[in-house]
Specification:
Blueprint: H1 2-12, E1 16-23, H2 30-41, E2 59-66, E3 69-76, H3 80-83, E4 95-101, H4 108-119, E5 129-134, H5 144-150, H6 155-158, E6 163-167, H7 176-191
Parallel strand pairs: 1-3, 1-4, 4-5, 5-6
Antiparallel strand pairs: 2-3
Bound molecules: guanosine-3'-monophosphate-5'-diphosphate.
Guanosine-3'-monophosphate-5'-diphosphate binds near residues 54 and 170.
Length: about 200
């Protein structure tokens, strides 16, 4: 009887787990976005003061539950020497959140190069990508059309996967819920699709 009840309990409260990578250049706002996400989606999470967050070196992790989905975030360092480690995580990921600093026009082409390299990786084929145009709270920031124009020659490399460009401020939280809810919808839908080529052993 105990086994039956505990099996039923486990079935009812079971959550499917999804690994989501948070990528982008250093200083784009990845860690701030992760903290904001945990603060908004975890009931008892107190969060650290946003002013105490320092740029990602190595790896930050975080987990949130949204409905029956459990998202496990891996926030990877964006410095040039750390970008070479990104692809070690691709095979395990169900979704990618790519963060762009909309206030840093000077590094936009560097960000585009990193995005292009990531998006053309075979290991990420079909994986949904949420592009966050971050720091939209800054008055002088680049607009979504400006960023789309700068990234326009990547569009045909995105292929048929789900991709959304979302205006966001990781600092104020604007656009964070919309982005996360979109990602949850995509990864849950994908799990019911036939497996990706790389998953077939
Ligand atoms: P990273 O993890 O991608 O390296 P961080 O980036 O999250 O460490 O953020 C880098 C800096 O950008 C931080 O400022 C942080 O407060 C700021 N930042 C992140 N998101 C936003 C945003 O949406 N709006 C604004 N205005 N600033 C943001 P400091 O001064 O600590 O370097």
């Amino acid at each position: 009887m105990y086994t039956l009840l505990s099996g039923l309990y486990k079935y009812m409260f079971r959550r499917d787990e999804y690994c989501i990578l948070i990528l982008g250049l250093d200083n784009a706002g990845k860690t701030t976005f992760l903290e904001q996400t945990k603060t908004r989606f975890s009931r008892n999470y107190k969060g650290m003061s946003f002013s105490k967050i320092t740029t990602t070196v190595g790896l930050n992790i975080g987990t949130i539950d949204v409905g029956k989905a459990r998202l496990m975030f891996w926030d990877l360092g964006g410095q040039e020497e750390l970008q070479s480690l990104w692809d070690k995580y691709y095979a395990e990921s169900h979704g990618v959140i790519y963060v762009i600093d909309s206030t840093d026009e000077e590094r936009l082409s560097e960000s585009k190069r990193a995005f292009e390299k990531m998006v053309t990786s075979d290991a990420l084929e079909g994986v949904p990508i949420l592009v966050l145009a971050n720091k939209q709270d800054v008055e002088t920031c680049l607009s979504i059309p400006d960023i789309k124009t700068a990234f326009s020659d990547c569009i045909n490399k995105i292929g048929k996967r789900d991709c959304l460009t979302q205006a966001c401020s990781a600092l104020t939280g604007k656009g964070v819920n919309e982005g996360i809810e979109w990602m949850v919808k995509c990864v849950v839908r994908n799990i019911h699709r036939p497996p990706r080529q790389k998953d077939i052993k």
